[in-house]
Amino acid sequence: MISMSMRLKPIGLSEKESVKALFTSVFTSEPWNDDWSDETQLDLYLCDLMDQNNSLTYGLFDDDELIGLSMGHIRHWYSGTEYFIDEFCIRTDRQGQGAGTLFLAEIEKAIKALGLTHIFLQTENDVPAFDFYRKNGFYQLPHHVGFAKKI
């Protein structure tokens, strides 16, 4: 259920411990099952996302409790400046209640006020997040393909 006390707030490394707790609770569970047991690697990853010149991290708070997280960066592109979301999550027990939709709407307002024109993100097509983003107005890029190579 959406609470009237929910609010968007830009956050930084001073909130790293609450970010770490929310991030690991979501992404070490189904459907992601990521192994973030290496604390050093986790700290480095969060610093990569939150502590660069163009980093932009938002938290969704219900009262003083962090329940949503959007970590990304501002990227300048020929078609406008965009918010590239690297990680987006809602606390597992709050999913499916409208908090994620509210969070995205508030992010859109905030980045529009900054002069940004697009949101770009990537997700897997076989997880619930795929349908969530489509429901919230995101579309799959027709010619964009992700590649990776393990070395």
SSE string, helices as H and strands as E: EHHEEEHEH
Principal-axis shape equals globular
The number of helical elements comes to 4
CATH architecture: 3-Layer(aba) Sandwich
Number of structurally distinct domains? 1
Strand content: 25-35%
CATH class: Alpha Beta
The CATH superfamily is identified as Gcn5-related N-acetyltransferase (GNAT)
Mean pLDDT: 94
Uncertain runs: none
Ends apart, CA distance between termini: 45 Å
CATH-derived topology? Aminopeptidase
Question: Strand pairing plus helix content: what structural class?
Answer: alpha+beta
Roughly what percent helix?
A: 25-40%
Rg result: 15 Å
Strand order of the largest sheet: 1-2-3-4-5
Number of strands: 5
How many strands, what sense, and barrel or not for the largest sheet? 5 strands, mixed
Chain-wise SSE layout:
Blueprint (H helix, E strand, L loop, with lengths): L5 E5 L5 H12 L11 H12 L4 E8 L2 E13 L2 E11 L8 H15 L4 E4 L6 H8 L16
Parallel strand pairs: 4-5
Antiparallel strand pairs: 1-2, 2-3, 3-4
Structural commentary:
With 151 residues, the chain is α+β, with helices and mostly antiparallel strands. It has one domain (11-135): Gcn5-related N-acetyltransferase (GNAT) (Aminopeptidase). The chain has 4 helices and 5 strands. It has helices at residues 16-27, 39-50, 99-113, 128-135; strands at 6-10, 55-62, 65-77, 80-90, 118-121. It has a 5-stranded mixed beta sheet with strand order 1-2-3-4-5, sandwiched between helices. A hairpin with a 2-residue loop joins strand 3 and strand 4. The longest helix is centred in the C-terminal third of the chain and has 15 residues, at 99-113. The radius of gyration is 15 Å and the shape is globular. The model has no long low-confidence stretch (mean pLDDT 94).
